[in-house]
């Protein structure tokens, strides 16, 4: 189930979910039968202040207004998100402890050799909330005016051109690896400690390519500080509707979005999973939250069912295992 993020994009399915939520799981009945009596912990395995943290707190506030108990965000950082994920995986499957994670959850199964939990078996996806695109940026002085131009120059350079990343397993690296695999070309990776210095080096022409989040990349492109060649999402962005997708540029296998999801410990009762998903869908149907998510770069709102979320996350785990293996990145 997908919900376009534009002001008129409320889908019929999401509208039905919004209307049906009170009837699918009456608050009093669910609270008495299976709903936890204590505040719900929404564990975030990343540091406070980042985009995922901001979105998690927005969702927690919205759910606190809809559920019998408050939903409290708890940051449990470390090991690329694995510490927080492990805490949730080992928690009681009663709905009182949930995980708010992103694309990194699907990557970690192939990136870390000694996990004390199984991201696929020990955590159950509740819903994938939203997808945020990345934008393919080159320096303002680049001779490339299209993805085709860029790929032609890459092939001639034979691995001597560079791209910026924030290190192994980060979104900047992942989306670039996906593109390089689809195009059948090589580049040298230049890792940075954070996206900000990577952006500065791209603007100065010290690296040849940077994929950046839409909400920061679009202003750079529209102001002329960088040149956007394509958007990584499956659809064109309403922010820059003239910018082609990577699929339109000839590389559909390079389609990529950063996603955010809520997961629960394996074995959590189905009525609890259904209730959380229904309330998330109802919250995303409301104008204020939708608008704020769009401002954060979430151009595609999903709020899919637990069954759909399971298929989505499992396919992502499989996809990134293949990408990392072909890139020669071994589990550490």
From TrEMBL:
Keywords (A to Z) from UniProt: Receptor, Signal
Pfam families in alphabetical order: TctC
TM ranges: none
Signal peptide: 1-31
Classification via InterPro entries: BUG (IPR005064), Bug_dom1 (IPR042100)
Family (UniProt): Belongs to the UPF0065 (bug) family.
Protein's UniProt name: Tripartite-type tricarboxylate transporter, receptor component TctC
Annotated source species: Muricoccus roseus
